[in-house]
Amino acid sequence: KTYQGEIRVAVDDGQFISAKSLTKLLSMGCKYGQTLTFIAEPDTDAVEGLSKIIQAVQQGLGEEVEAIENKIGTQQTNTLEFEEEITTPTTGIPASTGLAFGPAHVIKPKHFQYERFGNNVKAEKEKLEIALHSVKNTLHQLIAKTEANEIKQIFMAHLEMLDDPDLIQQVHQSLNQNLSAPAAWHQYIEKAAQAQAALPDRLLAERAADLRDIGDKVLAVLCNEVAVQEPEQPYILIMHDVGPSDVARLNKDRVAGILTAVGGASAHSAIVARALGIPAIVGASDAVLNITPHTTVLINGDTGAFEINPSQAQIDDAIQERELQHQRRHEAEQHCHEPAITLDQHQVEVAANLGKILDTEKAVNYGAEAIGLLRTELVFMAHRQAPDEDVQEKEYRHVLDTLAGRPLVVRTLDVGGDKPLPYLPIDAEENPFLGVRGIRLTLRKPQLLRQQLTALVRAADDRPLRIMFPMVGRIEEWRAAKAILDEVLLKHPCPNLEVGIMIEVPSAALIAPLLAKEVDFFSIGTNDLTQYTLAIDRGHPVLSGEADGLHPSILMLIDQTVRAAHAQQKWVGVCGELAADPKAVPVLLGLGVDELSMSASSIPLVKAQIRQLNFADCQQLAQQALKCESAFAVRSFVEQTHG
Ligand code: PEP
Ligand code: MG
């Protein structure tokens, strides 16, 4: 109020209100993490006040809150903090195996500064035209340079968006109302992106990210921001977080490795990074965003350690180590079709997790002895509409045909939580991971479950089919699902069938002795079991790194599950990400797990590892691990005893 001119504020692109009115400020209902935009009346002292107000907000407006800007760190202050850390090796959470090095390509959350109103409508229109022209030119160059067709198509779609006559017309309308070119552009893009994101079709909704992406490119030119140049050679991509859709767009030839500030090893984005075979470290803290672009970074996706500005000797070591890894992998692949038997003759079944029907052959080629988890919700997601019984039967039949007699463990639809299905709307929930998910959903839509079960048993034709239900937490859920299956079986008998449940809710592990009397097998989903035991959202941007499946509490639940199953002569598999973690393999073996199921590309190395182990030693190791006080202690103990 000490400034004469008017100062206005809006939250997240909402309506501007006077920043001098307390009641209006309160009614904005602004929350921590939202974006405030301030404007000041031109040609008054209020313009001067803007920077002071922004500074005050960043400092928490007199409250003890950590301002977002400070958390992410302004480049200047954190660069200094970071430089001090450079001398010691830095670590994050290993998310995808392998060594990689290259220039840092840092993508930071962008902040653009611009005047809200322009001085001259014609001049602003020209500015916009020049900016659009420049971005289109860059896109044409990128299209010419890019070899991968999928990436080319993304850039071509971006070009289409920029050529949209409706877009130009709408932005011009705002320019005619005296808005500056960046303000008019940003306002339009944000509105369009929000409308896009609200579409019920997930694939279409995800295109909002493309709109914002292209919007930022134009805005960067309008605000004279120097665009971060993609390094010429394969680089280490450094971002706050990489969403599953970002990872899917990555070009393996350009991105040597990924380093993110947040994220955990079992978030779905990390699962995709592994599937693409790009070494990745996640959850390495916001400080990584302050690594100077183009500085060489060396990452080790097996240990989570990374090095900024590594010495030539370190790079040489990494190249040598990578060569060794390639050799090890090559050798392991030569033997991938042989069984995994320990030195003292204990055999473990090694199976593949599958999300795409057409990947079955790849799994078999990598030595999968079975499919240990077919994530049918991913099969459903590949369809724009719910696949009917015939379509499903055909797809399951393809998997069984390709498996040529190897068992197929199919999980019934596990929708909900972080896996929505566009054509199966679920009411908004405050805690989707604790809500109508997995079996809780399909029991409420029995027709959907019945249809899936029928398609499965019809496709079986005497081949070894195993069906399991996800997210079972209570014995009633198992019995209700089994009753639906029994009904289906009356009409479609299926002789070579086993029926089981996933153990991914702690309550199921705790009542495993009761469940084991009724089921044919258990498959432990350590991703969710970890999430629910440690009460840490598996995709939580800050905490998920602490969700380590080797925590003794989870090992106790696995131990209890295996004992209960074996007492009833039933088998137990592990199909969460832990199954392929080299530190976890000896522990899981030692706990008596009969089958390990993992992403196909991990199979050769895990089989090779098992062949080097001694089962009796693993049993001792597992007993010690159960007594450890933390996941860290378990990992250190395995490191000491099994290198
Ligand atoms: C798990 O929870 O461990 C699991 C295998 O299932 P998903 O990752 O698909 O939830
Ligand atoms: Mg799960």
Please give the structural blueprint.
Layout: E1 7-11, E2 17-18, H1 22-27, E3 36-40, H2 46-58, H3 68-72, H4 75-85, E4 90-91, E5 93-96, E6 99-107, H5 121-145, H6 149-162, H7 165-176, H8 181-197, H9 202-205, H10 208-222, E7 235-239, H11 244-248, E8 255-260, H12 268-276, E9 280-282, E10 296-300, E11 305-308, H13 312-334, E12 340-341, E13 347-354, H14 360-365, E14 371-375, H15 376-381, H16 389-403, E15 408-411, H17 439-442, H18 446-460, E16 465-469, H19 475-491, E17 497-503, H20 506-510, H21 512-515, E18 521-524, H22 526-534, H23 552-567, E19 571-574, H24 585-590, E20 595-599, H25 603-612, H26 615-627, H27 631-642
Parallel strand pairs: 6-7, 7-8, 8-9, 13-14, 13-20, 14-15, 15-16, 16-17, 17-18, 18-19, 19-20
Antiparallel strand pairs: 1-2, 1-3, 4-11, 5-9, 6-10, 10-11, 12-13
Helix pairs in contact: 5-6, 5-10, 7-8, 8-10, 13-25, 16-18, 18-19, 26-27
Which ranges are low-confidence, i.e. pLDDT below 50, for 5 or more consecutive residues? 69-89
Estimate the helix proportion, in percent: 40-55%
User: Can you summarize the main beta sheet?
Assistant: 8 strands, mixed
Rg for CA atoms: 27 Å
Structural class: alpha/beta
Arrangement of strands in the largest sheet: 4-11-10-6-7-8-9-5
Bound molecules: phosphoenolpyruvate, magnesium ion
In short:
The chain is an alpha/beta fold and 643 residues long. Helix 7 (165-176) crosses helix 8.
Characteristic key phrases:
binds magnesium ion; alpha/beta; binds phosphoenolpyruvate; 643 residues; eight-stranded parallel β-barrel; 46% helix
